[in-house]
Each structure stands twice: as C-alpha cells, then as structure tokens.
Amino acid sequence: RGDTGAEAGRVSPGGCGGGRGAHALAMASCQRLDYAAVLCWGLACVAAFAPLRGSEEPSSLNFLVTRGQRIASATSASASSSFGLPSHTSSSSTSHAGAGWSLILAWSSLTSLALLRSRPLRRQRCSRASSLPGLPHRPASTRRAPRGWGWRTVLSQGGAETAVAEAPPVWEKGDVPPIWVVNLDRSADRWKQSCEEFAKQSIEPVRWSATDGKALSEEELKAKATWWARHFCTPGMVGCFSSHLGIWKEMVAKKIPCVIVVEDDVIPYEKFTDGIKTLQTELQALEGGWEVCLLGAIGCINPEKEMLAMRFYELGVGGGRPAPRGSSTRTLSDHLFVPHRPAGTHAYMVSYEGACKLLERLPKARYHVDLAAWGVRDLRLVASKPFLATQRFDEGAESTVAKSGSKTERFMKFVLQASGILAMAKSGGVPNLSWAWRTAVFAVPVPWRKWPKHTAEVSQGPFTSLLVMFFVAGLVRRSAVWIGIGFTYMCVMSTFIRFLCGTINWRVFIAEAGLAVAFLYHGLAGAGPVRL
C-alpha cells in the first residue's frame, strides 16, 4: 500500500508492504482451492461405494469400484497361492472388497495430496497471482495470514506489528544480548549449575524467576491459562509456558531489542559468545528480518533436507515450515537455516518484534510452550547452524508411568526400538530414550481432584507404543480392522494435540479419518475372517 524501494522491507502501521496485500489474498485463494479439492475427493468416494450397499447394479462413477475389484481379486489370488486360502469368493464379498479397496485407494491419494503437496509450486502460483492488476484489497483487520507462510513473506495483522513499526528498538552491532536463565525458586542447584556452565566462557547470566505451576491459585490459573490448558495440561506445562510469557512481556514493556533465553538445564557449547556475534551479522542481513533464532532445538531440525520418516513427527503436532523459496535445502546462509518442525525452548534468541508477535498470538498458556510458539506459522523463525547449546537429557530417567526396568516398560521400549522410532528420536536430537519416555503429551482430568493434582499425566512412551502396537498387530495378523483401529487412534489423538497446540489442519484430519473408515469398512464388510 504505497511502500516502495527501501520502505518495502518495513511494515507500515496501516497495512502490508507494497504488494503484500495482494500476495496474502492470492495465498488465501490457493488455500480455498485445496479445501475444494478435498471436498471433491470425499464426494467421489461416497458416490463410488454408496450404490453397492443397496444393489449390485454398477454406479455411474464405478471406475474406482472396478479398479478396486480387480485389486481385491488379485489380492485374493495372491493370498490363496501364498497362504493356502480358498480362491473362490461370492459376488457380494467381492463387491464389498472392491468398495473397501476403492476407499483405501482414494483416501491414500487424498493423504498424499494433503501431506506431500508441493509448497514451492503453490508459492510460485500465488506469486504470479499477486502480480496481476486489479486485485481487491481488504483492510488489515480482516485479512487472514496464509497457512503456507514462506520465509520472505511478511504480513501485518495489526496489534504487535503495528507497535513494532512505531518504535522498534535497535540491537547495536557487536553487543551480546542479555542472557536470561529460567529457573524455579526451589531449584537453586540447577541455577548454580547454569552459572558454572556460563562461567567457563566468562559469561554472567541473569536469573529469571520461573512460574511454579503447582503453586498457582485458582484466580492466577484462570488469568494465565486457557480453559483447555487448565484441564488437559500438567502444572509443569502451564508453569513453563507462563515463565516464557513473562519474559516476552518484560521485553515489550521495557522495549528490549533482543534477549537470549535459556533454561536452567542448558549446556552452552564452546565459543558461544563468538557464535552469537556471527549470527548477529547474518541475522541483520536477512531479507525480511527475523523474530526468533533457535540456538538449540530438537525434533525435525535437519539443516539440509528433512527425512520422510521424520515428517511423521510433524504429522502428530502440526506446524511444519516450508523450505526457503527457490532453495533445494533449508539453508539461508552459512550459519542459519529454517527448521521444519523444531521443539525445545532450552536456548533461543528472541527479538522485540518476535516478543510482540508471540504475545499477540499466545496471550495465555495453552500447551507445551515450544510446540505452540514455534508452530505460529507467520513467525519469522530461523535456527543456528551449528547449534550453540544443548540441554541435559540424563536427569529424571525414571519413568512416570512404569517403574524403571519393569516388564511393561522393557516391552514397550523394545517395540519403539524395533519400529525405528528410537533411531528417529536420536536423529531429532534426543539421545536418551528415558527422557523422551517420561515427557508429558497431555493430561486427563480427574473430576474428584483439585489443582494441581486434578489430572492424570499421559506420557510419550506408552502413548506412542500403543499406536505402534496397533499397526504391528494389523500387519502380523493381516487384519484391516487392527490397522483401522490404529488410524482411528492416530486421528483422534493427533487432532486433539493439534487443537491444544493451535496448529489444527482439517485436511490432515479428513485424510486420517478417511483412511480409518476405509480400513474398518474393508475389514468389517466382508463375511468370515477379516484379512488383508
């Protein structure tokens, strides 16, 4: 809206920079096209199998059914030759099998469209649309940020970004930002350990008194957490989120240009200070600026290209980030990259603009602070390459669900190791399985208890092991029903976690629900033993 030349890289108080309003409108149009494609796929699947329930007459859209019947016949013949099963089937069971396989084929294609869609192609299509003349303009207060936010796309939604445009503080070149260590008052030993770690590099950190979730009153809890967080999050999750919220509020109130936030279990690497100075030069040279720079993280953090297996983590929690536009890797510069789906708040650097945006998007605690904050799609988030800090993974190795060394825990850990999830955890920066095992996923409210003992914690280890065992049982027994139960479990749990995290995606929900229905329908529709 009138910003040209040097002004194009800055956010104006009244709206977006030059051409960005049209770009946001084009991105929203592409998003509506994706939803229309999902709807068409669903209607085609329903039209394909619905006529088979009442009669054996072929439907007008029966090419999916015909293709499914061929696959079903081929599968039946293969099963009879491999396992000695009878090869004859009735026309009714064949029709049901064809319908079931039609659903599986259709929804598998839908899953591919929803999860592996081409983001670079989508951005190129929107970029061409944004250059067309005559696109209507909407006020900033009614304009939605696109879901597929690219690194060089900067959008204004009022509020915090308007305040940034009015009086942004400046990070002086060569200055090392203050280092604030989040530490509970009752954890004096961990504060001492943090001081010793930073003293090795002649750094004097500042202690930030963390919020103890267990000590919150009912009034304080309502003021600091959403209704869902009060009932489905542990006191530790609420307290951790509130602690980081307090830091962001302090930065905005005092207009501090930049702060390095670390937790009291952090271990800085050598030449931490030199790495910060190097990052400052590259961060200030980034087109479009930056808001958060991760100095350490776990999760999907490959600086080159994320493995397909690691994308299952993003499938569960949502909030994945696209690679930089026009790049085959995630690298932005020699020491910066865009992580796909990071987690962890043990070491990060946040700017004044980033604190404003995080406060605007996340005014109250709602889930794990790292998954909620780093899942904000229009947050300009980058990560250091290599990381400048890590955290301790050897504390609290005892499981909160089963005693260490019990048969239940040993069996579930074997399932995770055999399925390859342990290797995925190590590639995501988590070397200790016991640490990941005891991490809380969410909490189940207990009606007759009061805060802070009003919930029963659900930990990561048993939660993931149960999902793996559903699919293993389906493959071993060659049962579509067990696989359908696994997809149902994954759909319900991942959707609930995405809802708590604020990264819900209805396309993923429709794909997972469709696969669950397809496998359950295929397994339960036929007579006799249910086999794949």
Question: Can you give a write-up of this model?
Answer:
With 532 residues, the protein is α/β, with parallel strands linked by helices. It is 49% helix and 10% strand. The longest helix is centred in the N-terminal third of the chain and has 30 residues, at 20-49.
Shape: globular
What can be said about the biggest beta sheet? 7 strands, mixed
Q: What ranges have pLDDT less than 50 throughout 5 or more consecutive residues?
A: 1-38, 44-65, 75-94, 115-165, 396-403
Mean pLDDT, nearest integer? 73
Q: How many H/I helices?
A: 19
Distance between the termini: 58 Å
| Strand residue percentage | 5-15%
CA radius of gyration:
26 Å
Total strands: the figure is 13
How are the strands of the largest sheet arranged?
A: 2-1-3-9-5-10-7
The helicity comes to: 40-55%
- By secondary-structure content and strand pairing, the structural class works out as alpha/beta
